[in-house]
Amino acid sequence: MVWVIQRPSALSTAEACDDDSGRGGRRCLLGRLGTRRSLLSFGTVGLVRLIVARCQVDYAGRLTAHLPLATRLILAKADGSVSIHADDRAYKPLNWMNPPCALTVSTAAEDSGFTEVWEIRNRDGDTLLISIAEVLHDSSHELGVDPGLVKDGVEAHLQVLLAEHPETFGAGWTLVQREYFTAIGPVDLLFRDESGGYVAVEVKRRGEIDGVEQLTRYLTLMNADPLLSPVRGVFAAQLIKPQAKTLASTRDITCVTVDYDVLRGLDDPADRLF
């Protein structure tokens, strides 16, 4: 029996069908296969299934890979993806298959030592074969809509804080504009220093050679403008690689390491013992 894994549909498990269109399979992938309970039997919409099982995994595609029989976590998500995990790494699975793909669940041969076999095949013809010997844990969970990852301390946050605190670069500095537009892209910050000269500031979380090169291109273009010239550059980051500092020094670009917590007012260097 073949189910097509694409994305969840509005069909319930009872309504899903196993016709060639695969429309029912989008929902019934994690439903029941006939009257026999399958490891993919979610039974309801939008569930993620966690299965801890002794299994053997074989992959065939652009290369071949074999995982001998061992206890592993099988993660079957509502989007149709299937991944196999071990306990010796963080987030990266041992093997996986992304949708859209077709899944065939069958009963293993009696003398094979396995109870059930999943064959997952994608549209390129790659196959992932999961042979199940014993199920130790089996649970389904509805995760709901994820609000997404909210990152703190990204370049945009640093840029806002530095725009609000021009004194980070020196007394008497004033902000001219954030995202100052040039013909090759916007400069993060444009300031005037204590003497009234223009200073272009490129902001990065990690300062590397590419950032110095980027600022160099901006400076070349801005110094060609008689209304701005002379413009000097400052490369600001939470961490600046030694190679980037060396390159910046050859371009007359000043490097400034900024402390995100200090900019947010969460850390006062005067309160530190050392």
UniProtKB/TrEMBL annotation:
The gene is nucS. Its EC number is 3.1.-.-. The keyword Disulfide bond does not apply. This is Endonuclease NucS. HAMAP family: NucS. The keyword Nuclease applies. Belongs to the NucS endonuclease family. Signal peptide: none annotated. GO terms for cellular component: cytoplasm.
